[in-house]
Amino acid sequence: MATDNRPLRILHISALQLWAMEGQAGMCCLDETLRGHRRAGYEIMVIVPGHDLWDEGATTPVQASSAEFEVHIAPCRYLPLMKRLRSWVTRTFGEGHVSYFLRWPVGVGTWLLLSVSLFLAAMRVRYRRGWRFDMVYAHCEYAALGGYLVRLVCRVPNVTRLYGTFAADLMKKPLICLRYPIAAAGFVVPHSRLICANDGTRGDEVARRMGLNLTRFRFWQDGVDRRPTNPDLRRETFLRTAPPNLRIDTKWVLSCSRLTYWKRIDRILRALSVCRREAVPCQLLMAGDGPEKEALAALAKELGIAGDVVWLGAVPHAEVWDLMGLADIFMITNDVTNRCNPLFEAIRAGVPVVSVCDPSTADLLTHGENALLADREDTEQLGESLARICTDAELAKHMRRAQRDRDALLWTWEERMDVEVRDLEALAQECAARRAFGSRAGCRASASRESDCL
Predict the structure, then answer these.
(1) What is the pLDDT tens value at each position of the chain, 454 positions in all?
(2) Do domains 9-223+412-453 and 235-407 have the same CATH topology?
């Protein structure tokens, strides 16, 4: 709560869209954060870009809204042009040095323009609508600078929330802040709190190597809740609305992922082709959509498994639990990290997992216990693991039981957000106390102490 006994007011500025909200598909973390703040009684307002930053094909303005809180749009009319320019550079020059040097100014320009757009939208909320907030909360590295600009003008603490990072593998390279300024921005832009997801991307390692003040750094794992499932849903019922190539007499292998390159769905397809070769009946239920869809469909056709892949498209997050209840196996084979929400959900749902060896999941997945693991680049071994779990009923039963032990390692979202709420309230009270002290003392020393908080 705020120090004057009114609810804490938080302005959320996000480079991410609210596309996980209102039962839609997508990443649930932003949604759960906002819901957690609402459960705590906070007054919140949200600002999002007027165009989707990541979907290359999206050119129409977004229509974000919520029944629970007020949403404002930062127009960002330049975003479609910047995305088309970046896409053209990649198509024309590939991924080499020329492409990098051309994409660098486009990427930095997009980041700076977005930062200014979010900042100006925040100023409109503050001055035109007269909404005074106690804290600004910036979602992802693209919004971090905008949050800091709001902090400077409004003299409120700023929180940066990172949903993982790509910076860990870049730390070996010189001049990372210059060469990869957006990846670095989430860490180096000044903050009162930096909350980074413990999702296997080693954000804690980046924070230490960048020399951050670790008293302001929080490294927390996301929560996961068991959602209510449809008690009447059976395979026969699901088949009525599923794509026509889905068969009831096979093992169903579920994967939930945005179809981007680093998710490496191609590994799953190649593993599926091993099962096809060995006459093991199974089908992949692919829940998700993205820019790699056409390339992956072409690969499935090339491998001769087009009929074994069921493209479900974007699935509402609440319905993922229904799919978990119907699936025999869950597969995840990402490049960067496999410690992410779909894996948490599979563990909580008790579904056996087939994945790749990944240090980030060492505490969650044990080969032969609750998962079968293969070398990252050995799709033949991955396929053999999939075939084994499809044909060994006793092993599958054992793995389902073993998931209960791993489930104890996971937070619920309520538990996760309770930790954050206590930390934010402590931050707000600390900053208010320092401002009051600085006002009474009226000296440089106290102003310096206030800046330690803000």
Answers:
(1) 555 677 899 999 999 887 544 445 556 888 899 999 999 999 999 999 998 887 766 667 777 777 778 899 999 999 999 988 988 988 888 877 778 889 999 999 999 999 999 999 999 999 988 899 999 999 999 999 999 999 999 999 999 999 999 899 888 888 889 999 999 999 999 999 999 999 999 999 999 999 999 999 999 999 998 766 666 678 888 888 889 999 999 999 999 998 989 899 999 999 999 999 999 999 999 999 988 999 999 999 999 999 999 999 988 877 888 899 899 999 999 998 999 889 999 999 999 999 999 999 999 999 999 999 999 999 999 999 999 999 999 999 999 999 988 998 899 999 999 999 999 999 998 888 877 776 555 544 444 444 556 6
(2) yes
- Beta strand pairing call for 251-256 and 217-220: unpaired
Largest CA distance in the chain: 79
Coil, helix or strand at residue 413:
helix
Q: How many CB atoms lie within 10 A of CB 246?
A: 16
Give the N- to C-terminal CA distance of the chain in Å, as an integer: 18
Phi-psi region of 211 (alpha: psi -120 to 50; beta: other; left: phi over 0): left
d(CA 446, CA 449): 5
Domains of the chain, residue spans: 9-223+412-453, 235-407
- Other residues' Cβ atoms within 10 Å of the Cβ of residue 404: 12
Which amino acid is present at 5? N
Mode of pairing for the β-strands spanning 135-139 and 9-14: parallel
Phi, psi angles (nearest 5°) of residue 201: -90, 5
Residues 6+ apart with CB under 8 A from 377: none
DSSP state letters, 305-367: -GGGEEEEES--HHHHHHHHHH-SEEEE--SS---SHHHHHHHHHT--EEEE--GGGTTT--B
Helix, strand, coil percentages (3-state) for the chain, rounded to 5, are 50, 15, 35
Rg (CA), the chain: 23
What is the fold, at CATH topology level, of the domain defined by 9-223+412-453? Answer: Rossmann fold (3.40.50)
235-407 domain in CATH 3.40.1030.10? no
Q: What pTM, to 2 d.p., does this model score? A: 0.86
Return the H-helix or E-strand segment holding 284.
strand 282-287
Q: CA–CA separation, 190 vs 427, rounded Å? A: 15
**What residues have CB less than 8 Å from 315, skipping those under 6 apart?**
25, 256, 287, 288, 323
- β-strands 135-139, 371-374 pairing: unpaired
